[in-house]
Amino acid sequence: MPERHVALHCEGTTAFLTLCAPPKNEMGAAFFDELLRLVPAIEQLRVKGLVVRGQGRHFSSGANLRDLRAMLGKENAAEGMRSLRDNSRGFCSLAALPFPTVAAIQGCCLGSGLELALACTFRVAAKNAVLGLPEATFGLLPGCGGTVRLTRLAGYRRAIELILAGESLLASDALDAGLVDAVVDKSDLGSTAVRFVERLG
Q1: Average pLDDT in the 117-128 region?
Q2: In terms of Cα–Cα distance, which of 171, 100, 163 is closest to 133?
Q3: Which CATH architecture is the domain 6-200 placed in?
Q4: Residues with catalytic roles
Q5: How many Cβ atoms from other residues are within 10 Å of residue 34's Cβ?
Q6: Mutual orientation of helices 77-95 and 29-43 as an angle, nearest 10°?
Q7: Is the pLDDT assigned to residue 75 strictly greater than 60?
Q8: 43 pLDDT higher than 90
Q9: pLDDT digits (tens, 9 = 90+) for 19-33
Q10: Residue 82: what pLDDT?
Q11: Beta-carbon neighbour count of residue 137 at 10 Å?
């Protein structure tokens, strides 16, 4: 049976989308392909809401750098741009769902991992969470909608600082910056995310 990188299941009236490639839950080509294949099933769900979470210690460390370099190194620039657009399409589909989505963030939430969380309606972070868009430190910019969504939450000036400096924030600082809606103990993360869904769905 092929290894899965993302899985969907329901518990009662709450659905769960789980990044299941620990320890880092990296987002490579296989992850984005699987997410796009899951989109039709997610759109048909009859639930109060969706919790997006990572398996293990981390939400996601972001893109698989090997896959990212391969995509950016393609001789045909149009093909690379098409791949990036397809990657972004999965996140846009989650952002457009007709029910609330809640990212339950613990550990690392970086790069495209944070872009996925930003595509959710709400974000709940454990106290040990670290959030950031480090793409600038690799000579890149976020490519899956993070620049737009971060600006809406944090404001233009703060978003520019975070994006261009590749700065990472602790959960408490992310709360102050408007990136997350609540910070809780790690043991309360799952139940808090579900309560968001039940209250708002």
Answers
A1: 97
A2: 163
A3: Alpha-Beta Complex (3.90)
A4: 115, 135
A5: 17
A6: 40
A7: no
A8: yes
A9: 999 999 999 888 999
A10: 67
A11: 11
